[in-house]
Every structure is written in structure tokens, then in C-alpha cells.
Amino acid sequence: MSHAQTKCLLFLLTIHKTFIAPKTKQFGLLSEHIRTHMYWECETNYKDWPEHRLGKKILQVIENLRKKLMIGVLPDFFIKEKNVFQNIPKKFLLVAQKALLDVLENPVPYFICSLRNLRYTTHKFYPPLNFNEL
User: Fold this and answer.
1) Strand partners, 75
2) DSSP string, 59-106
3) What are the distances in angstroms from CA 17 to CA 50, 60, 91, 115, 134?
4) What angle do CA 25, 62, 84 make, to 5 degrees?
5) Coil, strand or helix: which one is 39?
């Protein structure tokens, strides 16, 4: 994965941890599903990951994940015949889909909230945001 793709994956995982995981309690969308989706996104659009438009790309990746949740099909990256959403109850897929739709409708507050929840990072790796200034 490129640097931009890794940033996107980490950002999706923070959104998942903040807004989806508390509602589904490990019965719905998991970080493994997000990782699988990112593998497909990276392979499909391997050249379309500009650092200067990463926010727009993240929204596109979220929209693509929401569409996969809507139809209930996400093929495994290594075993193409396997649907990783197969054993997830439909109600948990709907919860994740609704959470992602909320993020897409008004992304800035959701992005800020998920960034606030980042813990255990050094100031060298990820400098803390000044939320009052923002």
C-alpha cells in the first residue's frame, strides 16, 4: 500500500471504531471487512490515490463500501468465491450502512470526532490537532 492508501485505511478504521463498532458490538462490520474492501479499492484504482485530494478519495472509498453493504456482497480478496458479508445478519449491515451514510452527508464533524478519539500516538508520529483553532 502507498502512503495515501495507508492513511485512508487508518482513517476508515478510526471511523469504524468510533461510529460503527459501538453499535454492532462485533456482530456486524469488522476491521477485517474494511481491510478487505481497501485491498479491492487499491487494486481497482491503483493509480488514483493523490495525496493532495485524499479527503475526496476517502469519501469515494466510503461510498463504495456503503454500496457493498447495501447489496450485502463483498468478495474475499484471496478467495473470490467467498462473500465476507455472508454470515452477518442484515440488521447489522444496515447499521453500518446508515453510519456511513451519515458520514457521507456531513463528513467534517465525523472526521473531527474520529480524530479526537485517536489515542496512544506520539507527537512525532501524529501531531495533536488544536480543535479550538480548527
Assistant:
1) 83
2) HHHHHHHHHHHHHT--B-SSSTT-BTTTTS-HHHHHHHHHHHHHHHHS
3) 25, 19, 18, 11, 23
4) 55
5) helix
- DSSP-assigned letter for residue 19: I
pLDDT of residue 33: 92
pLDDT at 124: 59
Q: Which three cell numbers stand for residue 86?
A: 455472508
Distance CA 23, CA 69 (A): 16
Joined grid coordinates for residue 115? 480524530
Cα→Cα distances 9→38, 124, 130, Å: 7, 20, 23
- Residue in the structure block whose three cell numbers are 463500501: 65
**Average pLDDT score, the chain:** 85
Give the N- to C-terminal CA distance of the chain in Å, as an integer: 30
Q: Quick check: pTM over 0.70?
A: yes
Q: Which of 129, 97, 96, 98 is nearest to 112 (CA)?
A: 129
Looking at residue 51, the DSSP 8-state letter turns out to be G
3-state helix, strand, coil in the chain (%, to 5): 60, 0, 35
